[in-house]
Specification:
This protein is an all-alpha fold. The chain contains eight helices and no strands. The protein has a single domain, classed as RNA polymerase sigma factor, region 2, helix turn helix motif (Rna Polymerase Sigma Factor, Chain: A).
């Protein structure tokens, strides 16, 4: 499977069964989990580091950590997606500390965006997406994390809270502040933000 392509979502029941089989060492179930979560994990990592090769390497490391810990994962407690994104979050924190990096230094590659409408809509979407991506880079770290997990990855508030080790109320507050700040920044336009 290619990095960043769209995985096939499963029903909650099938996902639970697949995870249970993976916990028991079923290789096909592990492959199914990989296919199901790879695009979301890669997108999250890429949005944090901004480099395709580095994102691919980090994503592989995250899945290796997931494989090493899946036998200990307890269903019924934390949702699997929150557990997996907690691994991703912790791995990125370690990466930042080790390399002294804060976040992405480049713009988001349009290959991360899955848009297939007519060409005019694609151009408009890319321009808007680019503006939003630049504005998101200006947010404080905690707000960027929440925005990445909630909107780029699609986690719920509960899953985001568990992935980041925060309370749901904190996630809601961070999301609210981030969205409000993004709205103000985008209304002001790039000329005002950059001083052009």
């Amino acid at each position: 499977m290619e990095f960043g392509s769209v995985g096939v979502p499963l029903s909650a029941e099938i996902e639970r069964e697949t995870i249970q089989r993976a916990r028991e060492g079923d290789q096909q179930a592990l492959a199914d989990i990989y296919d199901m979560y790879l695009p979301r994990v890669y997108r999250y990592v890429y949005l944090r580091v901004g480099d395709v090769a580095e994102a691919e390497d980090l994503t592989e490391d995250i899945f290796l950590r997931m494989l090493g810990g899946i036998a200990d994962y307890k269903q019924g407690g934390v949702p699997f997606s929150a557990w997996l994104f907690r691994i991703a979050h912790n791995h990125l924190v370690s990466y930042y500390r080790k390399n002294g990096v804060r976040g992405p230094k480049t713009t988001i590659d349009e290959s991360v965006v899955d848009s297939r409408p007519d060409p005019a809509t694609i151009v408009e979407t890319r321009l808007t997406y680019g503006e939003v991506a630049k504005a998101v880079e200006e947010l404080p770290e905690a707000q960027r994390e929440v925005i990445s997990l909630r909107f780029a990855v699609g986690l719920s508030i509960a899953e985001t809270a568990k992935a980041l080790g925060k309370r749901q109320g904190n996630v809601k507050a961070l999301q609210h502040k981030a969205v409000a700040k993004l709205q103000r920044m985008l209304r002001a336009g790039p000329e005002v933000r950059t001083g052009i």
